[in-house]
Amino acid sequence: ALTQMTSIKSLEQALASDLSGLATSIGIGAAHTVLIARGPLQCLAAQYFLESLPLASLVLIDPLLLPDDGRVKKQKIASPEVVDNRWKSSLQDLISLLDGNAPNMYKHADRIVGDSATHPLLLSDSTSTKTLSESALTSLNVELSLLNSMSCNEDSQQLLLEPGIVPMLIFYSGGVNNDYEDYYRICAERTAAFHTCAGSSDYFDQVSVAKIPTIQGGSGADDMDHLMKQIYDWYDVAVA
């Protein structure tokens, strides 16, 4: 459980343990597993996990944290200040969301949030923590504590993972229940760009980005059946 995690490394270790248990119980190891990670911290841990253990493919949902790009630092293509800003700005934006404030890209907007109830990760100025369940509030506080600890740590964990290691698909939350859909989409697109493998000429092994489908004519909740169908269809084409 996330409430028991004290660092991204502990999330990685828990993930490795779960996949090891899967191999023991049904005989399917990580190399034959399609991992679906949802949430900023979960997506970040899944990307670091790929550096040490293989997967058949990776599906990221709402990867709001942009990893510290160790590839650029290693190649010395950009200045350290430019590279560090990518990680630090996404980290501060996520802390702002958890604190009930808008990400930096909305600071000049006249109207930021809608009237609908938002996801617990998207506490708007009109959403009180009193409306959250006890478990959601506990998870929120744990995430805030972990993120604040990460923001104070000068030595962030660099992601050296080369692009195109495994087939990858990225989704982001949208619809009436997400007041910051544009922010989620931009983070998804930047994550996809990080993992896109540039080929020769005009060819790019582009990582696809899609919006999570919502139930039509209802509350705008995520249509999980449709989402899983999209993942299965993608798997049949890109992985199988």
Whole-number average pLDDT? 75
How far is it from the N-terminal to the C-terminal residue, by CA?
A: 31 Å
Query: What does the largest sheet look like?
Result: 4 strands, parallel
Give the strand content: 5-15%
Overall geometry comes to globular
Strand order of the largest sheet: 1-2-5-8
Number of helices: 7
Helix percent band: 40-55%
How many DSSP E strands?
8
Oligomerization status of the protein chains: single chain
Helix/strand order, N-terminal first:
HEHEEHHHEEHEEEH
Topology:
Elements: H1 8-26, E1 34-38, H2 40-49, E2 57-61, E3 68-69, H3 70-75, H4 80-99, H5 134-152, E4 158-159, E5 168-172, H6 181-195, E6 197-198, E7 204-205, E8 208-211, H7 224-238
Parallel strand pairs: 1-2, 2-5, 3-4, 5-8
Antiparallel strand pairs: 6-7
What characteristics describe this protein?
8 strands, two-stranded parallel sheet, 43% helix, four-stranded parallel sheet, 7 helices, 240 residues, globular, alpha/beta
Structural commentary:
With 240 residues, the protein is α/β, with parallel strands linked by helices. Helices cover 43% and strands 11% of the residues. The chain is built from seven helices and eight strands; from the N terminus they run αβαββαααββαβββα. The chain has helices at 8-26, 40-49, 70-75, 80-99, 134-152, 181-195, 224-238; strands at 34-38, 57-61, 68-69, 158-159, 168-172, 197-198, 204-205, 208-211. A four-stranded parallel beta sheet has the order 1-2-5-8, sandwiched between helices. It has a two-stranded parallel sheet with strand order 3-4. Helix 1 (8-26) packs across helix 2 and helix 4 packs antiparallel against helix 5. Residues 111-117 and 122-129 have low confidence and may be disordered.
